[in-house]
Design goal:
Blueprint (H helix, E strand, L loop, with lengths): L3 E11 L2 E9 L16 E3 L6 H13 L8 E7 L5 E8 L11 E5 L7 E5 L1 E8 H7 L5 H10 L3
Parallel strand pairs: 1-5
Antiparallel strand pairs: 1-2, 1-3, 2-8, 4-5, 6-7
């Protein structure tokens, strides 16, 4: 059965344009990737857990930012891996320099037997929708389209 995850897309309006806050995955495997590597802050949830609550939890764990206000449903997308991502959007603002992410451990370098700790998210940034479409993982692009449609362009 494919894994299920849930996430939140924070947006703001600046100069008549919609901007979205995306995060870049941490760790050495993503260090040199940019276009097509950014994501909505998200994470896995278990059977019986409400996806929207998991989305709130994961957003705060990955960014350190609180979630406030009404959530706008953006539906679900399917990643290349088969994992599904349920997403909601909310209007907010945050300073990317203040991002504080939880961490994970992995063997690094490979086959070294040494565990090293990395941030789950190494940075976050605000992007206008046209730039965000280039930065975000391809499978998540429909979330940007749905947000733009819901907000009336």
């Amino acid at each position: 059965m494919p894994e299920k995850s849930a996430g939140l897309l924070m947006y703001r309006r600046r100069g008549g344009r919609i901007e979205v806050f995306l995060v870049h995955p941490g760790g050495p495997l993503w260090a040199k990737k940019d276009e097509g590597a950014w994501s909505v802050p998200k994470g896995l949830y278990e059977e019986g857990e409400y996806p929207v609550e998991a989305a709130r939890r994961e957003f705060t764990e990955e960014t350190g930012f609180p979630v406030a206000g009404e959530l706008l449903p953006l539906g679900t997308v399917r990643m290349k891996s088969g994992k599904t991502v349920a997403a909601w959007a909310f209007e907010g603002d945050a300073d990317p320099a203040a991002l504080r992410s939880n961490t994970f451990k992995m063997e690094w370098p490979p086959r070294s037997g040494k565990l090293k700790e990395f941030p789950e998210v190494d940075r976050g940034a605000w992007f206008p929708l046209d730039v965000a479409r280039e930065k975000i993982v391809q499978a998540q692009r429909p979330l940007l389209d749905r947000l733009e449609e819901a907000l009336g362009g």
